[in-house]
Structures are given as C-alpha cells and as structure tokens.
Amino acid sequence: MSFSRRQTSTERVRYSASPVAGERSHDAATGNVRPQHGESEEPVTSNVGQNYPYTSETDADRAATIARLVSERDGLAATLSSESTPLDGHDRWWVWKCPTKGCPGLLHAAGYAADKHAVFVVCDGTCGKTYLR
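RESULT FIELD:
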C-alpha cells in the first residue's frame, strides 16, 4: 500500500463508514427514542420530572424550613442525626417537588446521606417523608 499522495485541505478523511439514516448498531433498551413519522408521542412517566430540581432557595431559607420541620415532626431530628451529615456552605440549595402521589410538598436539603453519595431531603408537605436526591 502506498501513502505517497498527500491529502489536500479540501479532502476529508473518513475513518469509518458513513452512518445510514435511521439505523443503529443495536436497539435501545428503552425502545425507539423518537416516535416514527405519523406516530403520536406517549406521555412521559412521572419519575422523569422528579429528577430535575423545581426551584432553589437561599441557605437561610433552607435552614429555617428544616428547623421548623424538625420542631414540628417527632423523630425527624433523630432521623437526620443518624442518617445524614451536615451540609457544607453553599449560598443556594435545590428544591424538588415531592414524588408522593397527592402530596403538594417540596423537598428541602437537610444534609448529605451518611452512607451514600446523595443529598438527604425532607418533604414539607402532608406526607413528611425523607428522600435521597
């Protein structure tokens, strides 16, 4: 094989075959990502939106909310001390909507999970549950 010819700037080097429109080397685990022409899109499951923050709050607002919830709910202080570690200094913290069906609450950062890489959050709504985010 000879490599004596020098490539000009207008020529493109192709390292692999051109992709064929619409073909994949394998099927996605979730099926088709986009609907085909003429198909309608299925509604997205509710857990997709739960992974994205709803809003943010100042550290002072977050601390006040957590202090209020600890004073109002029996056992929350013990849960926080046994299952989480204190948060470090940030100016703002993310707030999520509570995933519990029918609960209008928001999830506020209360600490870092003691045994996992996550933020330990507390719901200020009717369910009063804790979650990892």
